[in-house]
Task: structure prediction
Amino acid sequence: MATVSMRQVSGSHRAPTPPAATGRTLETLAGLDDRELLRIVRSQPLDSARRVAACELLVSRHRNLVRSCVQRYNRSPEPTEDLMQVGYVGLLKAINNFDPDVGGSLAAYAQPCISGEIKRHFRDKRWQVHVERSMQELVLQVRDATRLLTQRLGHVPADEEVAGHLGISDDDLREARRADLVFQPASLDAPLAGQPDSASLADVLGEEDPEVEHTLDMESVATHWDELPRREQKILLLRFYGDMTQAEIGQQLGISQMHVSRLLAHALGHLRQRLLGPPETTPAARLASASS
Result:
């Protein structure tokens, strides 16, 4: 990540890039307190060497504040140095926006600005799959609670302990766990630990099995099978499992082929309606029904 500059933070300003603060300017301003430096930042033009020097001194004095905000993310896959740069962006925004004449301290004002900038970085840059903002924040809370409870209890906390500590339901915790998995998805080409011949994740993924869909369809039919009369059940079995023609079925049951056709159509129509619902009526059919 590129080093933060005042030009990056200044947003839409078209002023020329500020000159680097000279050693003499820094030495002159080093004895001033934060309020005096902040007044220089607010009063001087963007390309002023005094303004740049005042910003550098303020950033230097509050470097540990940025580091403390970054510290909570030390277990994330994002490099600490990158997060420090993001934190400095938040600190510079706080320096630009803080009014020393209103009162309060820069540190108190800057802390939520720095944390907010880091959270925005994770929300907008790091998630590989879209996750709602509320869920992203819950993921961070679960991580913090897990670390806190591990230190307090002396063991990795159970899900019930984490959920109780945060005051959330088990379902919410499971959703947060799943959301945490998409933060840094694994590659299908990644090698599997403990597997011979450098097997990858793609090697152990299953393929679509058409028999699964067939099984689900048959389970659906079985749910409504007993709603059919015995004779219609037998006709369906002879037709689709015995592979018999309608004429052969009629001979075996002692009925005509036309009667078999009607019974077969009735049975199939009943099952189709039970499984798929009533057929949609076309506009032409509705018009014909209304005119009759």
Q: What stands out?
A: The CA atoms of residues 35 and 100 lie 6 Å apart.
